[in-house]
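Researcher: Here's my situation. A collaborator sent me these components and asked whether they could plausibly form a single complex. I don't have experimental data yet, so a predicted model of the whole assembly would be a useful starting point for our discussion.
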Amino acid sequence: MNIVVGVTGGIAAYKSVQLVRLLVKAGHDVTVVPTDDALRFVGLPTWEALSHNPVTTSVHDDVARVRHVALGQGADLVVVAPATANTIAKMAAGIADNLLGTTLLATEAPVLIAPAMHAEMWRHPATTANIGTLRDRGVHIVGPAVGELAGGDSGPGRMVEPEEIAEAALALLTPRDLDGVRIAVSAGGTREPLDPVRYLGNRSSGRQGVALAAEAAARGAVVTLVAANISADVLAEARHPSIAVVPVGTAAELADAMADAAVDAQAVVMAAAVADYRPAVVSDRKLTKEGGGVPAIELVETPDIVAGLVSRRRDGQVIVGFAAETPQSEEELVERARRKQQRKGVDLLVVNEVGWERGFESAGNAVHILGDGGEVVATAEGTKREVATAVLDAIVEALAPLRRR
Ligand code: C5P
């Protein structure tokens, strides 16, 4: 998405350096529009280097492309951080005497401001009235925080931290198309014990399922995340008031937890890597070499959880399966996925290629998404969060006719 970051002339401009970095890191095309005063705090080369886009303060540059309005017209979001009392006043009055002013007047995108000023200026009735005007106009305001100010005094007026501004900005870019929808997501990999210290497991980190839960919650869903053996640092991405985490270990535990979570869920997403087999016998005591010889491990099949969920599917419920394949060609990948979709009866099947170096444990992913007729409805490649976005888009589409019924 295109984000314009307006930077005005306050000492907090140095914190917006981090804000720009965070927005670029989140995959957005960021254009910085500083005021002349802002450049006294942080120079133009810094903004250009971080945003990877040309930076100017003047409405007279790039006139051929009508830059003074083009930036605002093309923006999906405009963030002003820091927003000084002066710029807030100009915004309230609709003054456009610099590139940021023309951009703000020319945009129909959401606008987020992070005020930063001395406490007296923040409390001044003029600022209060201007903030009121902006709020009434639908401008989003984050902060200011109470804390130490540039002069050494303290009070309300301190710009909130860049992480908080980035979070507010990204939330404004996220559609709320899953508002109130209940989703059950399984993630991670099951472990089937052999004895008290050993298990049969797999390399799934849980990252893709956690990204799905986090993205669903950001879009308004109420999520139950059934987490099979996921490390704390991976699970941290799922910290959200609308995500309830249910930790599980084995396939049997995961089956029970998903059966419970699916009862009132409109969408069920089985992203977990579930063991297909488990040891027939689990020894109460650690297996040792003392008896001599190499032990044979007898395996028994675990029930197919997703097939069970499909057989109990409630009206209007969308069920999504995952498949990790090691094919020799893309045709084989899609063909295998098609057969799996038919066999399991899921509404959507997300298939990705895995190997020693790809898929599991990695940050990125590439998937094909198949619909209930076995047709490829979408493909996605990128971070696991980007793949999660594509999967949720497909779920929203599959839910639409069912929700209208
Ligand atoms: O057949 P395969 O294991 O490749 O299928 C993967 C899909 O089936 C995933 O959605 C996985 O969560 C689910 N699965 C399951 N129960 C099993 C094995 C896999 O629900 N015992």
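Model: Some features of this prediction you could bring to your collaborator: DSSP finds 14 helices and 19 strands in the chain. The chain has two domains: 2-173, 182-403.
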